[in-house]
Each structure stands twice: as C-alpha cells, then as structure tokens.
Design a protein that fits this description.
Radius of gyration: 17 Å
Order of helices and strands: HEEHEEEEEEEEE
Helix content: under 10%
Low-confidence stretches: 3-14
Distance between the termini: 33 Å
Strand content: 25-35%
Number of strands: 11
Number of helices: 2
Oligomer: single chain
Shape: globular
Mean pLDDT: 92
Strand order of the largest sheet: 3-11-10-5-6
Largest sheet: 5 strands, mixed
Length: 228
C-alpha cells in the first residue's frame, strides 16, 4: 500500500477490523480457529488493543490454550487474518520460551520473556510509503534456525496506524499461538522485553502523520534477534 491520499486512508477507519485465529505451519493451515492460537477477547468484535500499558498486550486472550502445534527451527510459521489486514502499519512477531516445568496451556508470559524474531515494516519509496502487510490474509516469518528447542508462545502483532495522529490512536491486533520448536540450536535469544512495558504510548512507531507525511518510520520495540 502506498501513502497517496489521506482521505482514502481516513476512510479505512470504517473498514472491518480483524483477528489472527489460525496458524500455518510450513504451508499447512489449521482447519479451525483457536486450535493452537489462544482465543482472544476480540473473537466476536475484532477490536484492537489501544492501551499499551494493558495486560492485554501480552496475548489479548480470554481463555487458556488447548492445543500446541509443532514446527522445526528454520521452518515457516504464518498467521491467518479472519478477513484481511485492513489497516496499514507494521506487523511484528515475538517469541517467549515456556519454562520446561510449566504447562504451556496455562503459562502466563509475565516479565522480560519476549524477543522479536521478525518484522514486516514500512518501505520508503520516493515520497510515498509501501506497507507490505496491508490487505494480506496471511503473514509469515521464518523461525530462527538457532532458537533452542522447546515450547514457545509466538505472538503476532499488527499495528494499525490509520487513526494514530495522536497518542492512543494506534490499534494493535494481536494473538498468541502455542508451538513446540524441534531441531533447534544453541542461540541465546534477546534482547528480552515485557508486555506491557516494551512500548510507550508516545513511541514514534505508534504515531503517524498525514500532513506532513513522515520521512522516516520504524516499528516500535526491540531489535530483531538474528539468531546468534
């Protein structure tokens, strides 16, 4: 999507919201919603989170998990939006290691446990911006080959910027999938951050300007762990 006409983008406020309720493991999509993905509070209304200090920033869940998918380190993991990603903005992916003695279905990712593994960010093209995730039904990333084997929560996060001209205007659509990573490596993921805590409401990555159009943009949060 290119940033061309502010009125066109403002009109997107009336478009349908979305949720991420299914995953795709190495090209194979889950048949049903809320299988490996913990059911979120927006399972009916598709609304996003607007308060970055809310505990909903972790997984936005309304109930604990019920199933765990398996994926190999180096495999491709995707999340499916129930319609489309109908608002422009970045999409980020985080992982949190579930302790070996914890039940993955009930474990709460509290504290500095999250590390960023990928981001689909804005691309500057001349005087315009391209948003590669906009209007996509599925977004994917590669599980780092060097991530240790074990159980993880994988968090997808789409930040909608269409109403983010002031603090608190960004809408964050997120959910968490339960996965077991096999054939992993010996890397040390980091930096580790917490949700809430990783973002501040006035972070530049949570704000957007139509006039004047921003000349630089980077999604909020820590650097992507490259697998070392």
């Amino acid at each position: 999507m290119k940033i061309l006409a502010p009125l066109m983008l403002l009109a997107s406020a009336a478009e349908a919201h979305y949720r991420f309720s299914r995953i795709v493991v190495n090209g194979v999509a889950e048949a049903k919603e809320w299988t490996a993905v913990r059911q979120t509070k927006n399972y009916q209304g598709n609304q996003g989170v607007t308060d970055v200090n809310s505990n909903d920033m972790r997984c936005f869940q309304m109930r604990t998990g019920t199933s765990t998918a398996t994926i190999n380190a180096g495999g491709t993991l995707g999340f499916i939006a129930n319609s489309q990603i109908t608002h422009f903005g970045p999409v980020s992916f985080y992982m949190a290691r579930v302790p070996d003695n914890a039940n993955i279905n009930t474990w709460e990712p509290v504290g500095n446990v999250w590390f960023k593994v990928a981001v689909i960010d804005a691309i500057r093209k001349g005087n315009d911006w391209d948003w590669p995730a906009y209007n996509k039904v599925q977004v994917d990333f590669t599980v780092p080959k060097n991530v240790p084997s074990g159980n993880y929560l994988v968090r997808v996060e789409s930040i909608a910027l269409h109403q983010a001209q002031s603090v608190g205007g960004a809408q964050i659509y997120l959910s968490c999938a339960q996965v077991e990573v096999t054939d992993g490596g010996n890397g040390t993921p980091g930096p580790l951050v917490s949700f809430p805590g990783a973002y501040r409401s006035n972070d530049q990555g949570l704000l957007w300007s139509y006039y004047p159009v921003k000349t630089s943009y980077t999604a909020p949060g820590p650097k992507v762990w490259t697998g070392n």
